[in-house]
Specification:
The complex is a heterodimer of chains A (457) and B (181). Chain A is an alpha+beta fold. Chain A is 39% helix and 32% strand. Chain A has a five-stranded mixed sheet. Chain A has a five-stranded mixed sheet with strand order 11-10-9-12-13. In chain A, 28% of the residues are buried. Chain B has three helices and five strands. In chain B, strands 1, 2, 3, 4 and 5 form a five-stranded antiparallel sheet that branches. The chains are: A alpha+beta (457), B alpha+beta (181). The interface between A and B is large, with 68 and 73 residues. Strand 14 of chain A pairs antiparallel with strand 4 of chain B, so a sheet runs across the interface.
Chain lengths: 457, 181
């Protein structure tokens, strides 16, 4: 939701409205009426930085000018020259509306309505804001601003009021064609004003060749109409359908001009703010937002520093604690190195012990041999050799029976019992001629099932 | 000159910019300082842990040296290597009664002092034989390395009158230990 503050400069009166703009909806929060002498004090106290101005310019130049068809930027240059020539204004800002094309002396010309204001008048208003450090987003002529409220394809002679002056302007297809400011004796519409209105209608018909369909009263004039004579065309009051939720109708009519500034479409360029001022305010806004951003980042950075500072304090405390509890590293390392050197002196002994431990346990093997099934089997010779952590064993013997079947049976049992002792049988043989046998086995520390010398029978 | 009005906002902008720059520099300095402290802390923790490990290793080495010293015979530092080996040989002779022990010359091989020993034992009892072999293998300093063992009938007699021939060696480190005496 965007907040907008509009100030309307109407002669000696300043009307201020505070509104919120949300999409197409406008909510007016507050409205003030100030005298000119109170206005500087108001600006000083007001916290809002950005303002939109609607001003009723006393001295302006308006005319319909014919220019040859050309590009838009050239039109602006041509118009500037023409205005200078016709208005005698030296330094001015102007608005223009291309009304259409016209054939003049067999030449096609563009008909352009121009509205020019002296820059010194604009400066006089804006400088008051600048002095208080405020930013002016736009300055609209009141007639152009209020004309936005009349959104019709018909042609209307619109009449608004600024103090005692009656602003009459002709609108056709939504574009201002002509402006006339008439001084009146009192506020509101009276019989004398009707005469002026009728004269203006005649001017429109005769000179401009436009026949207004109706008269449209704007602003406070809607509620202050007291006449006995009729106008030549119908007359109506403008209470736009776009503002149906007005709590106090008269309030709306009084603040019609500043309110109208909030209805100006973005594409309608009726801002009289000079390029110089636009740059000034753009720079000012940039500096303000950048300063705000820097401050926000400073706050975040300060917070971050605080967080890091806390971590640093904790780390330093931790470091102090570690340093206090750190053992005498030099002494520890010296001791450790001395111990290592001392241990190195024992290494031959350790190696010797390892070698001794690497010898297969022959005693265990001999104990296991007593479990062999040696029925009718006699072992005559046994040789045990140690090599590579394994015992290589050679057994020789003979059977003690003459029965061949018994010899074979008992020999097989003998071999099987050897296998059950986790012995790896490398070779074996039974000779029936002399009943002798020969077995070569290996035995070591290997795990069951992982015995390198074992062979299947 | 309307731009004169920008003086105050510009000064504020400048001050805010300078303050922000100082804050950014401080943030960088603080972050780097914190990182450096963190590194120091990690290194000190590493040193503390390693010092503790070194202390424990020293204790473990001490303990290992004590164990090694306990394995050494009491006369290790007072006698020569040859004497120690021969003392072990005498001990074998005493323990395995009736053993016929033959030795050759001392030899130095792979950093060990070796005394080749051939033992012949008359086997009257298999259990006794197993115990004798167990005894030989239980020697630790010097240790007895059995290279070959043959059990066979003596002059064609059955196993009851067999003889066991053991070829082996008594071995100990050739280099004298540099440990405390």
């Amino acid at each position: 939701m965007k907040r907008a503050v509009v100030v309307s400069f109407e002669d000696e009166i300043r009307r201020v409205i505070y509104a919120k703009v949300r999409g197409e909806n406008i909510i007016v929060d507050d409205a003030l009426v100030l005298k000119d002498e109170q206005f500087d004090d108001f600006l000083l106290k007001e916290k809002t930085k950005e303002f939109i101005i609607v001003s009723s310019f006393k001295d302006f130049f308006q005319e319909t000018i014919l220019v040859p068809p050309t590009k838009k930027k050239f039109i602006k240059m041509l118009l500037e020259v023409e205005i200078k020539k016709r208005s005698q204004f030296k330094d001015f800002s102007f608005l223009y509306v291309i009304l259409g094309e016209k054939i003049v002396e067999h030449r096609r010309m563009k008909e352009v309505f121009v509205f020019a204001v002296k820059n010194e008048d604009i400066k006089a208003i804006i400088d008051r804001f600048i002095l208080q450090g405020k930013v002016v987003k736009a300055i609209y002529p009141d007639i152009f601003s209020i004309a936005n409220l009349v959104d019709s394809k018909m042609s209307f002679l619109c009449i608004s009021e600024t103090n005692l002056n009656k602003n009459m302007f002709l609108i056709k297809n939504g574009a201002i064609q002509f402006i006339r400011v008439v001084q009146s004796k009192e506020k509101g519409i009276r019989d004398i004003d009707i005469q002026s209105i009728n004269m203006t209608i005649n001017y429109c018909r005769q000179t401009l060749k436009i026949n207004p369909d109706a008269i449209m009263l704007l602003g406070s004039l809607c509620g202050n109409y007291n006449v006995t004579t009729d106008t030549s065309i119908p007359i109506a009051s403008c209470l736009p359908h776009r503002m149906p939720l007005i709590r106090d109708g008269s309030l709306y009519l009084d603040f019609n001009i500043p309110l109208s500034a909030l209805f100006i479409p973005k594409e309608r360029d009726i801002n009289l703010l000079t390029k110089e001022y636009k740059n000034l305010f753009r720079t000012s806004l940039f500096l303000r937002y950048a300063t705000a951003l820097f401050l926000a980042l400073t706050i975040i950075g300060t917070g971050y520093i605080g967080y890091r500072g806390k971590n640093i304090i904790e780390l330093k405390n931790r470091l102090d604690f570690i340093k206090e509890n750190l053992p005498d590293v030099r002494n520890t390392l010296t001791t450790y190195n001395m111990k290592r050197i001392e241990l190195a002196g024992y290494m031959p002994f350790v190696t010797s012990l390892r070698n001794a431990a690497a010898i297969p346990d022959m005693r265990k093997f001999l104990s296991l041999l007593s479990e062999l099934k040696t029925d009718n089997i006699r072992i005559d010779y046994m040789s045990i050799t140690t090599a590579d952590d394994i015992l290589h064993v050679e057994l020789k013997g003979s059977a003690k029976t003459d029965d061949y079947v018994t010899i074979q049976t008992h020999y097989q049992k003998f071999i099987d019992s050897m296998a059950s002792l986790k012995c790896g049988i490398k070779s074996q043989g039974l000779n029936f001629r002399d009943k002798s046998f020969h077995v070569e086995i290996t035995w070591g520390f290997q795990k069951i099932g992982d015995f390198p010398g074992r062979k299947s029978q | 000159m309307i731009y004169r009005e920008l003086k105050k906002p510009f000064i504020l902008y400048l001050i805010a910019g300078i303050v922000l720059s100082a804050i950014i520099v401080s943030v960088i300095v603080f972050a780097k300082y914190e990182k450096s402290l963190l590194d120091t802390k990690n290194k000190l923790e590493f040193i503390r842990i390693n010092a503790s490990k070194a202390e424990q290793a020293s204790i473990a080495i001490d303990s290992a040296i004590k164990r090694i010293n306990s394995l050494l015979p009491s006369y290790y530092y007072s006698k020569s290597h040859k004497e120690i080996i021969l003392l072990a040989l005498d001990d074998i002779k005493t323990t395995i009664r009736g053993a016929d022990i033959a030795i050759t010359n001392f030899d130095d091989k792979a950093g060990e002092m070796i005394l080749p020993v051939n033992i012949s034992i008359s086997v009257n009892n298999y259990v006794q034989l197993v115990n004798n072999i167990g005894y030989l293998q239980s020697l630790s300093f010097p240790y007895f390395d059995i290279e070959n063992m043959v059990i066979e009938n003596a002059a064609g007699k059955p196993l009851g009158g067999t003889i066991c021939k053991i070829e082996g060696s008594l071995r100990m480190p050739a280099e004298r230990l540099r440990g405390k005496k």
